[in-house]
Design a protein that fits this description.
Oligomer: single chain
Largest sheet: 6 strands, mixed
Order of helices and strands: EEEHEEHEEHEHEEEHHHEEEHH
Helix content: 25-40%
Low-confidence stretches: 1-12
Distance between the termini: 20 Å
Shape: globular
Strand order of the largest sheet: 8-4-1-2-3-14
CATH architecture of the largest domain: 2-Layer Sandwich
CATH superfamily of the largest domain: ATPase, nucleotide binding domain
Mean pLDDT: 89
Structural class: alpha/beta
Strand content: 25-35%
Number of helices: 9
Length: 356
């Protein structure tokens, strides 16, 4: 099992450089950070698209197209760092808060979970990788403590490691997407790390999106949804009769026909906003006792103009993952500006080097 999946006993800073590498449904992305006198610097950042047939997180069996995309991206950027942190999607992970007697040592907690784990995890324990973190006193059970338990079937972890190793990388940390985003969020809003607010992180991806809810800093809900920003390319293709390749190039670099913003972009933003509201309604129907204090947008679709305005009734933030960081000479500033929200998971993973 790779170290510190749940940020347990995390060192203040790893001695070696670390790549934060995100394997998403639409692309692979990486970020490398350094620190000097409390100033973080973006050393390198890049992305490489994945074809829809590859599927990123959803890929099964043959992972070579993903490894090849990672290799192309790293060769183009001339990356020398080989140590990497990556993240499993929420759909591959079980996250639970359990209650165990107070005062148990870590090794005793581990044994307890291992021998009684099937009451928490619906898989044979010999097929599972798990990690845990002690959260503190259980407010509802005297003499007990709350434990954050994270588990994944071993083949999910081994598949992710195999992808990274076949690309020439050395996996050091296998995290979870929602924890990577939460680590980024608490870096950007350090006062919220232990606050009493309930925060919803919405990751608007390329082919799919996800809702991650943290109640007073603890994960209580995570669900994937079948909508994403890549549908905008489909609408451009259908409306203007372009090829997918031309639509992607023109959408990114400019040159789309007149009428694009009014006829295609604005209706798509409105539709995406409705999808997010439906996802929020689904969450609130399933957990009505949790009031949403703030919605935070990350992912490819967070850059859609006016997307936050579609979420009427909610306090919405759309932060720059690289806020307050210096930009190194090897980083394409236009790329980072245009793609900043899509780099959120990779940035959160890169922050693991510094114990964040």
């Amino acid at each position: 099992m790779y170290q510190n999946q749940v940020r347990k006993n995390v060192p203040s800073m790893l001695s070696q450089p670390l790549l934060g590498l995100d394997i998403a449904s639409d692309a692979v992305r990486f970020v490398e950070l350094s620190a000097s006198r409390k100033q973080l610097t973006v050393v390198q950042a890049d992305s490489e698209p994945l074809g829809r047939s590859v599927g990123g997180d959803a890929a099964q069996g043959d992972f070579s197209p993903i490894s090849e995309a990672i290799r192309r991206m790293l060769q183009r950027s001339r990356v020398r760092t080989r140590a990497v942190a990556s993240a499993l999607p929420g759909s591959s992970v079980i996250v639970k808060i359990i209650s165990l007697p107070s005062g148990m040592r870590d090794e005793v907690i581990e044994d307890q979970i291992r021998y009684e784990g099937q009451q928490y995890i619906p898989f044979p324990m010999d097929q599972v990788n798990f990690d845990f973190s002690v959260l503190g006193t259980d407010p509802e059970r005297k003499g007990y403590q709350q434990i954050l338990l994270v588990a994944s079937k071993r083949d999910h972890v081994e598949d992710r490691a195999a992808i990274l190793e076949s690309a020439g990388l050395k996996p050091k940390i296998i995290d979870i997407r929602q924890f990577s985003l939460w680590g980024l969020y608490t870096h950007l809003y350090p006062g919220d790390a232990t606050c009493k607010s309930n925060i919803v992180l919405v990751e608007i991806g390329g082919l799919s999106s996800a809702l991650h809810v943290f109640e007073r800093g603890q994960p209580v809900y995570s669900r994937d949804h079948n909508f994403g920003a890549a549908r905008l390319i489909d609408r451009i293709v259908q409306h203007f009769g372009l090829t997918e390749e031309d639509a992607q190039r023109m959408q990114r670099f400019g040159g789309l026909p007149a009428g694009y913003e009014q006829q295609v972009l604005k209706p798509f933003v409105v539709e995406t906003g409705r999808e997010i509201l439906r996802a929020l309604d689904f969450f609130q129907a399933s957990m009505p006792d949790i009031h949403v204090d703030k919605v935070v947008l990350f992912g490819t679709g967070a850059n859609l103009p006016g997307i936050g305005e579609q979420l009427a009734g909610f306090t919405v933030e759309n932060p720059d993952p690289f806020q307050g960081m210096a930009i190194g000479p090897n980083v394409n500033e236009r790329f980072l500006r245009d793609e900043r929200s899509s780099m959120a998971v990779a940035c959160g993973l890169a922050l693991r080097r510094f114990g964040e």
